[in-house]
Design a protein that fits this description.
The complex is a heterodimer of chains A (592) and B (105). Chain A is of the alpha/beta class. Chain A is 39% helix and 19% strand. The relative contact order of chain B is 0.25. The chains are: A alpha/beta (592), B mainly beta (105).
Chain lengths: 592, 105
């Protein structure tokens, strides 16, 4: 089957908010832009799944015509993001985030975004609303949009990115992209985990292909788990609805012995964690501890109920967000009945956001010329713990990455031609799982990996468990990945073929994350080491970086990017450091 | 939690190979709260990896709306329709089938 050839100036990989925003801005530079969305247009990646909040400083929000908080400032917001991130943030990125947020939100409002409600530092809208506004805008400015197209790998020449190979999933045709610049905006890699809150297309090939092409990745050990995610029944599994309900209405978490286990922790920490988005790190950690101690639910979680509140009070708060107990196409009436009748819902931590990723400079460039990255697939913005919104991150980073990529492509008049032989070799490799016939089926292996990832690289880690996991992944890599085979050789919508192409990327990122988690012998933010339960500022105010060296990967400490907030020197037990970071928050109210 | 075995009859058609569409039956253990999508996931992961339904970029939570199909003749999102016994799964439109339950534009 012949491949299709598509020539462009800028190729954007990723159909979430960062990708769309980058494509729109690259197009504004007057160059040709193609966006490859792995799934449905504006319904791909994590963005449409978001609740969604857009955070910015209260003063800017006030200036946009919302109440916000006129007493807020750049400095207060900056300081809060740094302490929430345990000082591991890239401070130049925080600066870019705060400075870009106001105009980023204004653009979205101009493009028709509807706001549900707002508070001091955030507006609340829906992920689908954001994506619909961006899709409309991208069409208006003439971005070429491709749906159900999975980019498999990048092609470089003389240190520059010059092309990419992709699969059109519906037809099974391969596409050769020839391009001057690439923006990777591929989001997280939720599919490496079970359970997950993410869309099924998030398998991390963007980060993995950038790493293979020569970009660095870092802070891979920092993985955020949303708390209070339903684990059963299957109909609700992975939904953020109960997470949102708990944030709005409160409630009670109990273990299998009926103990309200949050009561054993510092009440100040618990109260802050329940109200603010500290919930993800702290409640996930506390829930995982119950499971570890043998007090978990059948599916590895805990139980959520309304506690001692009256149902009337509880429902009133919930209905602000879930009018008539519906969320998108999900009917929540059975969930409401369960809570009203005082029954409990089985909930637990599920993977939600990846704080680490591709390292980029202030122009969102990687060391590979012409290769840019934006959004969740990059590292640094939120340091060790994300409280503020990843929606803002995708908008501001997408905007700047797109502009720089567009400017670069415009100046790059004589870009090297990608070699046809290289493309042909990549195609041969890509179709191997189709032609292998007998071999290892991808789906059961993927499921086994997902369950292992949650167990060993979840909210609580130990050296022993990480080493077990790394041995498992090594065996998978050497003995199973080379034999992945699709049961049918038909090309159109071949799920096993797609999964055979995805799996090596997920295994690679899990290996890098496990290696990084083992390397960081301390506990900080969302990385908790049972065997090193102290936040060690003397030795660990460093980023972790993984660089490709020939066929292996070297891990090292890299200095933090600091502009104004000097990292702390003292070390404290994990929860005491959490309290200290919480107490450092400015007087500005709200969930952020 | 009680598990019972059900029969799932699934529409199969690969236009480049098959002369005619046909149904294939699978025995699936049914737990309470399983949707049509959960049935398909079970078949694909444990029984037959060649089965196609739109899920490579599905949310399974009623948001992306790409898993449109028919359950016992009634249309809807496969990820939001609960299954409580033997079930027949069809594509939303038989004339536009790319493979099995996946339809083109």
């Amino acid at each position: 089957m012949d491949s299709t050839i598509i020539d462009t100036d800028v190729l954007v990989i990723g159909g979430g908010g960062a990708g769309f925003r980058a494509a729109i801005e690259a197009r504004a530079q007057g160059v040709k832009v193609v966006l490859a969305s792995k799934g449905p247009l504006a319904r791909s990646g994590a963005s449409p799944m978001a609740g969604a909040d857009f955070t910015l400083d209260g003063k800017s929000l006030h200036e946009l015509g919302f109440p916000g908080d006129p007493n807020d400032s750049y400095e207060k917001f900056f300081s809060d993001i740094v302490t929430q991130g345990f000082y591991l943030n890239n401070q130049k990125m925080i600066d870019q985030y705060i400075r870009g947020a106001k105009s980023g939100l204004k653009d979205l409002l101009d493009w028709g975004l509807k706001v549900i409600f707002s508070e001091q530092r955030a507006i609340f809208t829906s992920g689908t609303g954001i994506m619909d506004a961006m899709l409309k805008r991208a069409r208006e400015v003439g971005v070429q949009l491709l749906e159900d197209v999975m980019v498999i790998d990048l092609l470089t020449k003389d240190g520059k990115v010059v092309g990419a190979l992709a699969l059109e999933i519906g037809s099974g045709k391969l596409i050769r992209f020839r391009t001057k610049a690439v923006v990777v905006a591929s989001g997280g890699w939720h599919k490496a985990y079970f359970p997950t809150t993410g869309m099924r297309d998030l398998s991390g090939e963007g980060i993995a292909m950038a790493h293979r092409a020569g970009a660095d990745i870092g802070n891979m050990e920092f993985i955020t788990f949303a708390c209070n995610i339903p684990l059963s029944p299957p109909l609700w599994r992975g939904s953020i609805v109960t997470y949102i309900i708990f944030t709005l209405c409160g409630g009670e978490l109990t273990n299998s012995q009926g103990e309200a286990f949050l009561k054993k922790y510092d009440p100040y920490v618990v109260e802050t964690a329940c109200f603010m988005e500290w919930n993800k790190s702290i409640l996930s950690w506390a829930s995982a501890r119950e499971v570890r101690d043998g007090k978990g639910s059948p599916n590895g979680g805990v139980y959520l109920g309304i506690g001692d509140q009256s149902w009337e009070e509880y429902e009133l708060k919930a209905l602000q967000f879930f009018g008539s107990w519906k969320y998108k196409a999900m009917d929540l009436s059975e969930m409401a009945r369960t809570l009203r009748e005082g029954r409990l819902i089985e909930v637990g931590p599920a993977v939600e956001y990846f704080d680490g990723g591709i390292t980029v400079n202030e122009r969102f460039e990687t060391p590979v010329e012409g290769l840019f990255a934006a959004g969740e697939c990059t590292m640094g913005m939120f340091g060790a713990n994300r409280i503020c919104s990843a929606i803002t991150e995708m908008v501001v980073q997408g905007t700047d990455a797109g502009r720089h990529a567009g400017e670069y492509a415009k100046k790059e008049i004589s870009s090297p031609e990608p070699d046809a032989e290289t493309f042909a070799a990549m195609e041969d490799q890509a179709i191997r799982p189709l032609e292998r016939g007998e071999g290892i089926r991808p789906a059961p292996l993927r499921k086994e990996i997902q369950v292992m990832a949650h167990k060993h690289l979840g909210p609580i880690r130990t050296a022993e468990s990480l080493k077990d996991f790394m041995r498992f992944l090594e065996t998978v890599q050497s003995e199973k990945l080379p034999d992945l085979a699709a049961g049918s050789s038909g090309r159109s919508y071949n799920k096993e073929w797609v999964e055979a192409l995805e799996l090596p990327n997920m295994v690679h990122l899990l290996q890098m994350a496990a290696k990084s988690a083992l390397f960081r012998t301390e506990s900080r933010g969302v990385h908790y080491r049972e065997d090193y339960p102290t936040t060690n500022n003397e030795d660990w105010c460093w980023e972790s970086r993984v660089t490709k060296q020939g066929d292996s990967y070297d891990i090292r400490k890299e200095p933090l990017t600091v502009t104004s907030a000097t990292p702390l020197k003292d070390s404290l037990p994990y929860l005491e450091m959490v309290r200290k970071m919480m107490e450092a928050h400015s007087e500005i109210g709200g969930h952020h | 939690m009680s598990t019972k075995m059900i029969t799932a009859k699934v529409f199969r058609y690969n236009p480049s190979v098959d002369q005619e569409p046909y149904y294939q039956s699978y025995q699936v253990p049914l737990d309470p709260g399983m949707t049509a999508m959960d049935i398909l996931d079970h078949i694909y992961e444990k029984l037959d990896g060649t089965l196609a339904y739109y899920d490579h970029a599905a949310c399974a939570l009623g948001i992306c709306a790409k898993c449109l199909g028919k359950v016992n003749g009634k249309g809807g999102l496969l990820c939001q329709i609960l299954v409580d016994g033997d079930v027949v799964l069809d594509p939303v439109n038989q004339d536009r089938v790319i493979k099995d339950l996946v339809v083109g534009h």
